[in-house]
Design a protein that fits this description.
Strands 2, 3, 4, 6, 7, 8, 13, 14 and 15 form a nine-stranded mixed β-sheet that branches. Strands 10-11-9-12 form a four-stranded antiparallel β-sheet, covered by helices on one side. The protein is α/β, with parallel strands linked by helices and about 400 residues long. Helices cover about 35% and strands about 25% of the residues. Bound molecules: (2S)-amino(hydroxy)ethanoic acid (HGY) and manganese (II) ion (2 copies).
């Protein structure tokens, strides 16, 4: 099969998609269910229609573009990713898997390939946690990892629930019908930038992901007594931010002392109230992200943080409460999908590196309902979630070629 990726067209589509943004270029901001996100989705759907794919969307907005196979009732082979982007992000995260997936399908069509199993491109809703606090909202619902009730109640920072926002965005229907039946997919493969420095550092063109680390996120709120920055003596203070600082350093210490490099912990949000220069912080909300390939080590870090909360409460007479947002199991890739990806690389004489994904992806949840694997391409300096995120046209095309080859083998 003479498989050729139209690199120029693919790169121009990535550039075009990056223009659907609420930030100044080169930054990209595309928050789920905003008008910008909806316009980007419509544009994506027009490309899928041009490729002759059958399109449907579900009640949370996951979008499915299917190349119907000669055996339309056989379980489909899925591929895809997300197009929502956090504030001040880059143009490749998620997008490479969606537009690369589409180009892989078009390249197979041009090569005269005919799939027996349908090949289905997915654009998942809300892979990023930005708006509703929980990442992978669409793939959680689709895999049954999150119930429809729990999803409907999630609220954004303006207090708008998912239920309201999705309907306003034009996605109606019953959230309980989003969950796919077991066996719906034969396999799921996601192409994605690595979002880390390993491939570039090891001068490897491709990474085959064998496991995805277990993510957890929580809010910790510290309440002190606040007061006038001049009038309250140090000995009389219950400063919420100083207490929070103890927790931040305790979290860092907990992550560093598990003895494993796979343990990572981040305080990405620190909201200080009232946030005035001459007012002692009365309340602080920390947004915390903890991950590890080992569930036990990850949960150990969270337990250590809870110990630190109890200690700080006693020492500083503050009150501290935590709210767990998600605590997910890690995922192992399906050996047969990994083997197919390896075969596809070997067929094109391409080296690859077996890897762990420290970022989570929709594939983490797709692994709950189908054998899954991911294919990584390098990104410059490992940068991601920043405007200077960059993957080269050659790396993107190479990853798309291997994806196309893999989809062909899986759908025969
Ligand atoms: O945070 C993550 O791992 C993903 O990029 N949302
Ligand atoms: Mn991301
Ligand atoms: Mn992503």
């Amino acid at each position: 099969m003479n498989l050729k990726i139209d690199q120029e067209r693919l790169i121009s589509e990535i550039e075009a998609l990056s223009k659907f943004s609420d930030a100044e270029a080169p930054a990209v901001t595309r928050i789920v269910f905003t008008p910008t996100d909806l316009k980007a989705r419509d544009w994506m759907k027009s490309l899928c229609r041009d490729a002759g794919l059958a399109i449907r969307k579900d009640a949370i907005g996951n979008t499915f573009a299917r190349w119907i196979g000669s055996d339309p009732l056989a379980p489909a082979v899925g591929t895809g990713s997300h197009i929502d982007a956090i504030p001040n992000a880059g143009k490749f995260d998620g997008v490479v898997g969606v537009l690369g997936g589409l180009e892989a399908i078009r390249a197979l069509q041009r090569a005269g390939f005919r799939p027996r199993h349908s090949i289905e491109l997915l654009v998942f809703t809300a892979e990023e946690p930005t708006r509703f606090g929980v990442g992978c909202l669409g793939s959680r619902l689709l895999s049954g990892t999150l119930s429809a009730d729990a999803a409907a109640k999630l609220i954004d920072k303006d207090g708008q629930p998912v239920e309201e926002v999705r309907r306003k965005a034009g996605f109606s229907g019953d959230l309980r019908e989003v969950k796919l039946p077991a066996g719906y997919y034969k396999a799921f493969v996601e192409l994605h930038i690595e979002q880390g420095p390993v491939l570039e550092r090891e001068r490897q063109p491709l990474g085959i992901v064998e496991q995805i680390a277990a993510p957890a996120s929580l809010y910790v709120t510290v309440e002190g007594s606040g007061g006038h920055a001049g009038g309250v003596l140090m000995r009389d203070r219950r400063d919420a931010l100083c207490a929070a600082a103890e927790l931040i350093l305790a979290l860092e210490h907990a992550a560093r002392s598990t003895g494993a490099i796979d343990t990572v912990a981040t305080v990405g949000i620190c909201d200080v109230f009232p946030g005035a220069i001459n007012s002692i912080p009365a309340r602080v909300r920390l947004g915390i992200d903890v991950r590890d390939t080992s569930l036990a080590r990850r949960d150990r870090v969270i337990a250590d943080l809870e110990d630190a909360c109890r200690k700080t409460t006693a020492q500083r007479q503050v009150s501290i409460r935590s709210e767990l947002l998600n605590a997910d199991a890690p995922a192992e890739s399906g050996p047969e999908i990994v083997a197919t990806l390896r075969q596809a690389c070997e067929k094109h004489g391409l080296r690859f590196l077996p890897m762990t994904s420290r970022a989570y992806h929709d594939s983490l949840f797709m692994s709950r309902i189908a054998p899954m694997a991911m294919l990584f391409i390098p990104c410059r300096n490992g940068y991601s979630h920043r405007p200077d995120e960059y993957a080269s046209p050659e790396d993107i095309a190479r990853g798309t070629l291997v994806l196309a080859e893999t989809l062909a083998m899986l759908s025969e």
